[in-house]
């Protein structure tokens, strides 16, 4: 069965007993990891238990297509329900997984399959979405509003109070990655110790540099029209595992901010005041660069609108076409980097 977005969190928190298997897929690797672990621990609390947890790689499935079916049918030596995991499943392992899913028992071993972004026509998605009890769970990069809700819940569940601007700051500087959000919140709460109130100042001290570096470097290169740095930092960010859609979303937020600054200037607000009052708050190290970027883009509001349009189209292509998301993002960033120059030439 295919889960709709508003049912996913409840399902992950309490997997129905008839469900024998889940496919967790999408471009947000951090969210995939978080959801897979949450489900796995409901089956086997100690995931290091070698008697109840079995890992099968896609490479092994290619060599022995019946291996997964055999593993799911085997009993646990120490009792208790068994957990079988297949990580980074691909098209070559889809047939073996589909065959195992066709014979899986609702009272037997539980299967968790994780994969990257899958098109609606992929064999893996079809196998899980057509199964009456198994579930297919998409993990798309979350926007700032969704991440803000996650941040607030994590902090409050730990017994802390948090200011709204602190929540917004973490959400806007976490690359759309649920795993990174969890890691940064954990680090923040350790820093706070027994002081149970989290402020924006606390967040800027603890979170800023760690979450912003490579992603913001990409955006800075794009906004400055620096092609060499766009390529350099994009390679670095992708190598670090930042999802292309997370990069596009972060760039969208940044260029929307530039557009809002331009709109404020048109109303007679000074550029400095527009930057200072921008929300969510701008990290102090980024403010001088934002001023420089505003000088380049705000003179051409149509350029900023064009950049946002390019980013929205690129994000949609990443989700719908099945094409290489990294190439789509790279093409979008390089196009945007030259937009003000092109418009300036046309108006000259």
CATH architecture name of the largest domain: Up-down Bundle
**Biggest β-sheet: strands ordered side by side in the sheet:** 2-3-4-1-5
According to CATH, what is the class of the largest domain? Mainly Alpha
Shape: globular
How many DSSP H or I helices?
A: 18
Helix content: 55-70%
**Which H/E pattern describes the elements?**
HEHEHHEHEHEHEHHEHHHHHHHHH
By secondary-structure content and strand pairing, the structural class works out as alpha/beta
Mean of residue pLDDT values: 86
Q: How far is the N terminus from the C terminus?
A: 58 Å
Q: How many strands appear in the DSSP assignment?
A: 7
Percent of residues in beta strands: 5-15%
Rg, Cα atoms, Å: 23 Å
Number of individual domains: 3
Classify the fold: give the CATH topology of the largest domain: Zinc Finger, Delta Prime, domain 3
Main sheet characteristics: 5 strands, parallel
State the low-pLDDT regions, or none.
Answer: none
Structure description:
The structure is a single chain. With 348 residues, the chain is α/β, with parallel strands linked by helices. The protein has 3 domains: 5-138, Rossmann fold; 144-206, Helicase, Ruva Protein, domain 3, CATH 1.10.8; 211-347, Up-down Bundle (Zinc Finger, Delta Prime, domain 3). The protein is 61% helix and 8% strand. The chain has 18 helices and 7 strands. The protein has helices spanning 5-13, 29-43, 58-63, 67-73, 94-103, 123-129, 144-157, 164-172, 178-192, 200-206, 208-224, 227-239, 244-266, 271-276, 287-297, 301-320, 325-337, 339-347, and strands at residues 21-25, 53-55, 83-89, 110-115, 135-138, 161-162, 197-198. The strands form 2 sheets. A 5-stranded parallel β-sheet has the order 2-3-4-1-5, with helices on both faces. α7 crosses α8 (164-172), α11 runs antiparallel to α12 (227-239) and α13 (244-266) crosses α15. The longest helix has 23 residues, at 244-266. The model has no long low-confidence stretch (mean pLDDT 86).
